[in-house]
Specification:
Structural class: alpha+beta
Oligomer: single chain
Helix content: 10-25%
Strand content: 25-35%
Distance between the termini: 30 Å
CATH topology: D-Amino Acid Oxidase, Chain A, domain 2
CATH class: Alpha Beta
CATH superfamily: D-Amino Acid Oxidase, subunit A, domain 2
Largest sheet: 9 strands, mixed
Number of strands: 14
C-alpha cells in the first residue's frame, strides 16, 4: 500500500516524495512486513466497507494492464482462470460479475456441499518481484527512500527527513504526511488506532509449474478459507488461515498439515502429472515439492479501511499552521487488490488538502 501510494504521488510530477520505512522489499522476510508473505491474487472481497469494491475495481484495471504482454511489469503477474466455490450465500449483485470471462458454475461443476460457484479470469501476483518493481519504478521517477524508525508523527512534522540516514539538513519540512503503516497504526504515536488488529495467515508454497489455475473455497462470510494461487515463477501458494488477534510470528506444524490436507482435497492437481497418470495421488506425493512456508499478520481494522485526512498543528516553532496527515491503512487481507484504488484516493486528498492549505 505504501509503495503504490508513493509511486502514484511521485509519478504525477507534482510532488517530491520520500518514503521513511524500517523495512524495504529487498530485506529478508520478517513478520513486521506482511506484504512479503501475501498470496496474492485479485478476487473481490465479500464486504464493501468504505466503498471497497470500487477501490478493488480501479486496482484490477491497473493490474490487468500491468500484466499484459510486453508490459514492463508482466513478469510480476500471471493471468489465470479462477474458480471459487461458496458454502454460504453471496452478496447480490455479485461483484465478481465484472471480471473477464465470468460465469456461474453449473450444479454438476460444484464440489460436494457447495451452494454455488463462479469462474472468471484474474491475475495472481508474485509479491517479492512486484514489491521490488514498485520500488524501482518509484526511484526511477525521482522518489527517495530512507530507512528509519518513527515513534511519533511529530518527529517527522518537526524534523522532516533530515532526521534519518541519507536525509539532509537542508531538506524542507514535509507539506503533508501519508500514513501507510499497516499494523504500525496501532502503535505509532499520534495515531495509536486501537481498532487495528492482526488477522494471522499461514501458507505453504509448493513448486508446481503444472498448476496454471486458481481455486478458492469459502465456508463462511469472512473470506476464502482454502485457496490455490499459482505464480508465474512456478511456485503455488496453498492456504490458508484467518485467525483474528493471533500474534504468533512463525509457522505452526499442525497448521501446515491442515493447510496441505485442505489444499490437496480442493486441488489434487498439486500432485505431479506423472503420478496422476498412473495412480490416485496422495498427500505424500506433494510434500517433496514444498519449498517454503509463509506466516503474516494481516493489518485489519474494526470499521474497515481508514482513508481520510486529519489536520494537525505544526509541531514546533519551525513551522506554523496546520499540516495534513492522510491515513491509508486497515486493509486487512485486501491490500494488494485495493492498492491502486486507494492510491488514487490519496492523490485526490493530497491535491485537495494542499490546495486548501495554500489558499488559507
Amino acid at each position: 500500500m505504501g509503495l503504490t501510494t508513493a509511486l502514484k504521488l511521485q509519478q504525477q510530477g507534482t510532488y517530491q516524495v520520500t518514503i521513511v520505512s524500517e523495512v524495504i522489499p529487498s530485506d529478508p522476510k520478517s513478520i513486521r512486513y506482511t506484504s512479503r508473505w501475501a498470496g496474492a491474487h485479485h478476487v473481490y472481497n465479500p464486504i464493501n466497507e468504505t466503498n471497497q469494491h470500487q477501490l478493488e475495481e480501479d486496482t484490477f484495471n491497473v493490474m490487468w494492464e500491468l500484466s499484459s504482454s510486453g508490459n514492463d511489469a508482466e513478469e510480476c503477474f500471471l493471468r489465470v482462470p479462477q474458480t471459487e466455490y461458496y458454502f454460504v450465500d453471496r452478496p447480490k449483485p455479485e461483484p465478481l460479475e465484472k471480471m473477464p470471462n465470468f460465469r456461474y458454475l453449473n450444479p454438476d461443476e460444484l464440489i460436494p456441499g457447495a451452494k454455488s460457484g463462479v469462474t472468471f479470469s484474474t491475475v495472481s501476483i508474485d509479491v517479492p518481484i512486484y514489491l521490488n518493481y514498485l520500488l524501482t519504478r518509484f526511484l526511477a521517477h525521482g522518489g527517495r527512500i530512507l530507512r528509519g524508525s518513527v515513534l511519533h508523527v511529530n518527529q517527522v512534522l518537526e524534523g522532516g527527513t533530515a532526521l534519518f540516514p541519507g536525509g539532509n539538513k537542508f531538506d524542507p519540512l514535509p507539506a503533508a504526511i501519508i500514513v501507510c503503516i499497516g499494523m504500525g497504526a496501532r502503535f505509532l504515536g499520534g495515531v495509536e488506532d486501537k481498532d487495528v488488529y492482526p488477522i494471522r495467515g499461514q501458507t505453504v508454497i509448493i513448486r508446481a509449474p503444472w498448476v496454471r489455475f486458481g481455486k478458492g473455497e469459502h465456508r463462511d462470510k469472512s473470506g476464502c478459507d482454502t485457496y490455490i494461487i499459482p505464480r508465474r515463477s512456478s511456485d503455488v501458494v496453498v492456504g490458508g488461515t484467518r485467525t483474528p488477534n493471533d500474534w504468533f510470528p512463525s509457522s505452526r506444524p499442525e497448521t501446515r498439515l491442515d493447510i496441505l490436507t485442505r489444499g490437496f482435497a480442493l486441488c489434487p492437481e498439486l500432485a505431479p502429472p506423472e503420478v496422476r497418470a498412473i495412480r490416485k495421488p496422495t498427500l505424500d506425493d506433494i510434500k517433496p515439492f514444498i519449498v517454503d512456508e509463509g506466516c503474516g499478520l494481516r493489518p485489519a481494522r474494526k470499521g474497515g479501511i481508514r482513508l481520510e485526512v486529519e489536520w494537525v498543528e505544526g509541531a514546533s516553532v519551525r513551522r506554523e499552521g496546520r499540516i495534513p496527515i492522510v491515513h491509508n491503512y486497515g486493509h486487512g487481507g485486501f491490500g494488494y487488490q485495493a492498492s491502486w484504488g486507494c492510491a488514487n484516493k490519496v492523490l485526490d486528498m493530497v491535491d485537495d488538502a494542499l490546495g486548501t492549505f495554500k489558499n488559507s
